[in-house]
């Protein structure tokens, strides 16, 4: 149907072209189309049919009109002529087309031949390009391996494997390349880790340098923070690595990177990580890296595990410092590797476990070194700075420093021993130089300085100098020593001791307490073992001030922040000072008692004398002078409580002796009683004189409290020591028991005398003898005895004065 339609269309077009005036021009395209479509024969047939149709139409027209026929004949002839011309032209065209088709056919055959050749050439070019690509990738892989760019080599190897090699897989070199892929894969993997091992070896050689850099950086940070705290007292209580310090730390300290400082990069590590991550074997890399890292660690800490326990691991401080620097370098690098690799190779737990393992072995070794090798302050300061800086560096790296911090406590204890020993040496030197005499100051400046040092709060009554202080030079010198000791301890622990404050305070308190108990008190006890009462008396005064100073020392210790959590600080030295003071008192009492007893051994009364002495006996005066000199000079600075006790004991001893001496006498005359009364009155006057001086002596608050709590004797109790003796003398002076028999009088005048003693004493009182030769002879003998006794005591008094003066 479609073909018929096309034919109708062509015929209509041909008829239209022939009927037009310029049919020659219009028919040309139709002929070309027919030639192109090999339809020239059909066209000719069509033209012939058209001619026939036209002739028929012409005949029909001629029949209808003769006039038109004539015209048509001419046209027909013309058309025929044209048709013939066209036929000839079509034939010529057909001949041309036939010849052209043959040429085209030949050329087409040549074209097909060349096309096949071209395809073969293209195939060859593709194969060659594939070969070149394989060779280029292979060479590039080998070149990248040589340049240590293992990750890029691996990526190129994967590209090589992904190339389709079907066309060239039969080539020999291709087979070799394909077979070498696993080898290249293994080479890349092994060589990448091999360079990681080399990097670790290079890093190991930098451990000491990195540790040194970290120490220098931290020292600079400590200097900066010390200056900052001095400018801002609010920050004084905060140490390095505290949250406050970290918040204000300058960026130059925060961004410190020892790797960059030593031009150490992790390129090899990163490259190896990417290689192993690409082949999904990152865990294997982590295990291999851990193994190599532990080898580096073991090589460094090897001496700790192979040193002879009886030998010191570190021969000198330089060897110790180098080891610590290298160890810090190892630990800092371990932490930096973890951070810079996002903990894919070294996790925080692994770093901590390695550090804890090292500390278990290192801490005992360092403690042993402290105990055996640290002997001077210079050594202890060097070692403390080394360990403290190490702890601060490790604390910045988030390592658990508790075990290592225990070394600081060991260092502190060792420091306490050293400064305690130095304190002892200086104190013994000062003790030996002390003359056990009251300290004399020459000007107000010295007075104020000594008062501040000694916590002596007595206000002078005048500004006349020189002035005599109650204590000797050893007291202010020891106070200054103790204050310096506490200051040195505070400075020692100020910078680095940031933790376990209560334990540090406990060590400090125990040290100060030990210094007071085992050094100060021990040497003071040695002082009071003297046989010279002046030395004992002066050191008794010193002990009084020392016991008071303990409270001031406790206040000094309470200033630390750690002590605020403690209710109160109590030094046992306070009780020991009191106990030592009691020993000194007892020793002094014993010496005074012995001296008084020695004097009393020379007392010898003639109870039968008939003569009344104009003045007290010389031995009584000797006793009185001894007591006056002792209490007004030797014991003048004694605490009022001690002095009162001494007075009471001494006069109680005298009273008891004279009372017993009177009771043991078998007979006495009124003259003897008169003389005895004069002697006792003299002793009582000495009591009143010394007691008045003692009452005028100022007492501080502690003494007043002690007087109230312990019933220290006052003037009334002191005078009461002679009451019984005085009442008995008064009874003998009365000569009868009349007043004693009266109860009211007895209770008022003789309440201390027992009835049997009163009766015995009156019965011993000699009555008036008859005048005779026997009485005169007895009186003369009594006088002779009295004179001889007086001469003997006169000689003793001279010797005593001479000995005391010497």
Number of domains: 4
Strand content: under 5%
Strand order of the largest sheet: 1-2
The SS-based structural class is mainly alpha
What gross morphology would you assign?
rod-shaped
Assembly category: single chain
- In round numbers, the mean pLDDT is 80
- What would you report as the Rg, rounded to the nearest angstrom? 66 Å
Distance between the termini: 171 Å
**Helical content (DSSP H or I, runs of 4+):** over 70%
How would you describe what is shown here?
By secondary structure, the protein is mainly α. The chain folds into four domains: 2-137, no CATH class; 204-400, no CATH class; 423-584, Tetracycline Repressor, domain 2 (Orthogonal Bundle), CATH 1.10.357.30; 602-805, no CATH class. Helix content is 78%, strand content 0%. The chain contains 31 helices and two strands. A two-stranded antiparallel ribbon has the order 1-2. Helix 17 crosses helix 18. It is rod-shaped and about 230 Å long. It starts with a helix and ends with a helix. The model is unreliable at 1-5, 698-715 and 769-806 (pLDDT under 50). Keywords: Coiled coil, Exocytosis, Transport. Residues 403-764 form the Exocyst complex subunit EXOC6/Sec15 C-terminal domain. Residues 46-215 form the Exocyst complex component EXOC6/Sec15 N-terminal domain. Belongs to the SEC15 family. InterPro entries: EXOC6/Sec15, EXOC6/Sec15_C, EXOC6/Sec15_C_dom1, EXOC6_Sec15_N, EXOC6PINT-1/Sec15/Tip20_C_dom2.
């Amino acid at each position: 149907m479609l073909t018929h339609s096309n034919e109708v269309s062509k015929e209509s077009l041909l008829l239209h072209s022939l009927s037009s005036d310029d049919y020659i021009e219009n028919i040309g395209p139709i002929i070309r189309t027919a030639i192109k479509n090999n339809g020239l024969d059909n066209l000719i047939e069509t033209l012939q049919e058209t001619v026939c149709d036209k002739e028929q139409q012409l005949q029909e027209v001629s029949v209808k009109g003769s006039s038109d026929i004539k015209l048509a004949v001419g046209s027909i002839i013309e058309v025929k002529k044209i048709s013939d011309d066209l036929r000839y032209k079509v034939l010529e065209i057909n001949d041309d087309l036939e010849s052209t088709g043959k040429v085209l056919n030949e050329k087409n055959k040549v074209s097909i031949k060349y096309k096949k050749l071209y395809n073969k050439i293209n195939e060859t070019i593709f194969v060659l390009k594939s070969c070149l690509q394989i060779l280029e990738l292979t060479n590039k892989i080998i070149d990248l391996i040589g340049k240590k760019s293992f990750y890029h080599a691996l990526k190129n190897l994967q590209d090589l494997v992904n190339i389709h090699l079907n066309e060239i897989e039969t080539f020999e070199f291709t087979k070799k390349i394909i077979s070498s892929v696993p080898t290249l894969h293994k080479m890349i993997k092994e060589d990448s880790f091999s360079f990681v091992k080399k990097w670790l070896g290079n890093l190991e050689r930098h451990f000491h340098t990195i540790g040194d850099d970290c120490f220098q950086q931290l020292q600079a940070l400590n200097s900066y923070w010390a200056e900052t705290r001095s400018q801002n007292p609010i920050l004084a209580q905060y140490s390095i690595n505290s949250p406050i310090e970290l918040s204000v730390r300058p960026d130059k300290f925060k961004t410190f990177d020892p790797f960059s400082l030593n031009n150490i990069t992790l390129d090899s590590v990163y490259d190896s990580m990417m290689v192993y991550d690409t082949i999904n074997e990152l865990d294997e890399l982590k295990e291999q890296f851990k193994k190599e890292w532990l080898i580096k660690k073991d090589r460094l800490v090897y001496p700790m595990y192979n040193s002879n326990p009886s030998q010191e691991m570190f021969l000198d401080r330089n060897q110790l410092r180098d080891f610590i620097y290298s160890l810090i370098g190892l630990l800092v690098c371990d932490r930096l590797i973890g951070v810079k690799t996002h903990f894919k190779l070294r996790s925080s737990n692994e770093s901590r476990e390695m550090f804890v393992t090292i500390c278990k072995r290192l801490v005992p070794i360092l403690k042993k070194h402290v105990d055996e090798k640290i002997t001077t302050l210079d050594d202890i300061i060097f070692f403390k700075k080394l360990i403290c800086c190490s702890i601060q560096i490790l604390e910045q790296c988030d390592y658990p420093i508790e075990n290592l911090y225990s070394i600081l406590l060991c260092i502190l204890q060792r420091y306490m021993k050293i400064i305690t020993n130095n304190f002892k040496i200086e104190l013994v030197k000062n003790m030996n130089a002390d003359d056990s005499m009251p300290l004399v100051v020459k000007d107000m400046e010295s007075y104020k300085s000594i008062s501040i040092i000694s916590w002596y709060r007595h206000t002078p009554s005048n500004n006349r100098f020189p002035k005599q202080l109650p204590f000797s030079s050893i007291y202010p010198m020891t106070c200054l020593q103790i204050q310096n000791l506490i200051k040195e301890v505070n400075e020692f622990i100020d910078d680095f001791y940031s933790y376990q404050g209560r334990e540090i305070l406990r060590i400090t308190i125990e040290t100060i307490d030990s210094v007071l108990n085992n050094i100060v008190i021990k040497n003071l006890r040695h002082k009071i073992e003297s046989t010279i009462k002046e030395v004992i008396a002066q050191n008794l005064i010193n002990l009084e001030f020392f016991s008071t100073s303990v409270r001031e020392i406790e206040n000094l210790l309470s200033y630390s922040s750690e002590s605020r959590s403690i209710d109160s600080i109590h030094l046992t030295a306070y009780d020991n000072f009191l106990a030592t003071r009691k020993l000194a008192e007892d020793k002094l009492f014993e010496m005074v008692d012995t001296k008084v007893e020695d004097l009393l051994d020379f007392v010898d009364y003639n109870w039968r004398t008939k003569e009344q002495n104009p003045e007290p006996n010389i031995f009584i005066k000797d006793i009185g002078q001894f007591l006056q000199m002792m209490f007004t000079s030797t014991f003048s600075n004694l605490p009022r409580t001690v002095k009162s006790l001494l007075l009471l004991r001494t006069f109680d001893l005298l009273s008891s002796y004279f009372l017993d001496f009177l009771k043991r006498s078998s007979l006495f005359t009124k003259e003897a009683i008169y003389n005895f009364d004069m002697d006792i009155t003299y002793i009582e006057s000495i009591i009143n004189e010394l007691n008045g001086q003692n009452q005028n002596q100022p007492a501080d608050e502690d003494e007043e409290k002690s007087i109230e709590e312990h019933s220290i004797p006052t003037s009334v109790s002191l005078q009461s020591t002679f009451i019984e003796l005085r009442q008995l003398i008064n009874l003998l002076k009365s000569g009868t028991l009349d007043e004693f028999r009266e109860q009211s009088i007895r209770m008022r005048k003789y309440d201390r005398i027992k009835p049997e003693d009163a009766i015995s004493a009156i019965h011993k009182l000699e009555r008036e003898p008859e005048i005779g030769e026997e009485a005169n002879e007895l009186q003369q003998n009594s006088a002779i005895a009295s004179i001889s006794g007086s001469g003997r005591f006169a000689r003793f008094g001279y010797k005593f004065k001479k000995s005391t003066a010497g």
